[in-house]
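Below is just one:
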Amino acid sequence: MQPAKKDPYDKTSTKRQIAHLKRLANKNGKRITIDLDGEHLKKIEALLQAKYGASTSHVIRNAINDIYQIIFDK
């Protein structure tokens, strides 16, 4: 007798996503979609390798914070 197959469908992903989006909204945040060409992806990868951020999202957030400081926090 073979063991029953596990259901590979993650039944909690929708709940997790809803909770994540609520947390973002509570911080006045928003999910955005961004299209990047190969040149930008290479730059992000180089920044990751240089430990500018731990993830692609972190690199982008750090870049936003850094350029904001340069432009507005003189």
The chain has a mean pLDDT of 91. The helical segments are 13-26, 38-49, 56-72.
